[in-house]
Specification:
This protein is of the alpha/beta class. The chain has a domain of about 190 residues: Rossmann fold (3-Layer(aba) Sandwich), CATH 3.40.50. The chain has 9 helices and 11 strands. Strands 5-4-6-7-3-8-9-10-11 form a 9-stranded mixed β-sheet, sandwiched between helices. A two-stranded antiparallel sheet has the order 1-2. Adenosine-5'-triphosphate (ATP) binds next to helix 2.
Length: about 280
């Protein structure tokens, strides 16, 4: 058999194996009761009072659209208005940069951290290890966290293929130190398997999670990884388009399981107190 055929055969076998693993991990939707209010003015009424409790929601948008501000506001409100503890996991910014951005909106993130109501876990991407997910799980259990933000899923996903081998695909192993060079098609399956596994792990933590994602450059898809919008329970898209009007940003609830969500586009304001979602005039 020619070397090319052998390679194709191996590739097919690996893809089949990974496909099987993907199907195996998708567990049925959890029965959650109640809502998790974001407390963001104008948002909760778009989703029947809040995100479905324990759901995973993708916050998707281009650069500078306000994804991180929206997500931090969700945690600050959880802590100050609803007595729910929050964990902000960032691969993008330092804890100080996040706190500094919060100060602009009057949020005392340092104070909330001292009271144990908010925890920031800043992980430089080069420090990602197979223990990172375990560390998140341990913090969630120990601190009794109810709200999680992952900033961003895109960064995590980009790193998935280079940290794994196709045969070792549980989430802890995906971001371990097994480096393998994989052809693009296998890399794609690894990414898909990773997204399923990661979101599944978050579901098991009994938290309401916001997963920040870069927007896709391709109109067919919402997220850059082209898959997380299908796996997540909800998708909120924030867009930026300066038209010379009062607001340059807008938001749409693209999907929210267990919810008769509002389907309109809403102008978004970044005010001195944080994000405000407006109604179309
Ligand atoms: N105090 C403020 N008042 C009004 N707008 C602000 C203020 N601070 C930041 N912004 C706007 O918010 C944007 C940053 O928001 P945020 O960090 O949430 O964006 P992001 O979507 O997370 O971006 P990225 O994808 O780069 O991480 C800035 O580019 C700026 O336009
Ligand atoms: Mg951001």
């Amino acid at each position: 058999m020619a070397a090319k055929e052998v390679l194709q055969k191996v590739e097919k076998a690996v893809v089949k194996k990974v496909e099987k693993a993907v199907v195996k991990t998708i567990s049925p939707q959890k029965n959650s009761s109640g809502r998790t209010s974001s407390g963001i003015p104008g948002f909760d009424e778009l989703v029947e009072g809040g995100f479905p409790k324990n759901s995973s929601v993708l916050i998707c948008g281009g650069p500078g659209t306000g994804k991180s501000i929206f997500s931090m506001q969700f945690l600050v409100n959880g802590a100050t208005k609803f007595g729910e503890k929050g964990l902000y996991v960032t691969f993008e910014q330092t804890a100080d940069a996040l706190k500094g951005q919060g100060t602009q909106f009057g949020w005392d993130i340092d104070g909330l951290e001292k009271k144990g109501l908010i925890k920031i876990m800043a992980v430089p991407i080069e420090n990602l290890t197979k223990n990172t997910i375990k560390e998140i799980q341990q913090i969630v259990e120990k601190e009794k966290i109810s709200r999680i933000v992952i900033d961003s899923l895109s960064t995590l996903v980009i790193n998935a293929p280079i940290y794994t081998t196709p045969s070792e695909l549980s989430v802890e192993q995906v971001i371990g130190d097994n480096v393998v060079f994989s052809p693009p098609i296998i890399g794609d399956y690894i990414v898909k398997r990773f997204v399923y596994g990661f979101i599944e792990d978050l579901r098991k933590m009994n938290c309401t999670s916001l997963l920040i994602s870069e927007a896709s450059q391709n109109n067919e898809y919402i997220s850059r990884d082209t898959l997380s919008e299908f796996v997540c329970d909800g998708v909120v898209v924030i867009s930026f388009e300066s038209m010379g009007g009062a607001y340059s940003r807008s938001l749409i609830v693209r999907k929210m399981r267990q919810t008769k969500n509002n389907e309109d586009v809403h102008p978004v304001e970044i005010s001195k107190n944080g994000i405000i979602v407006h109604n179309i005039e």
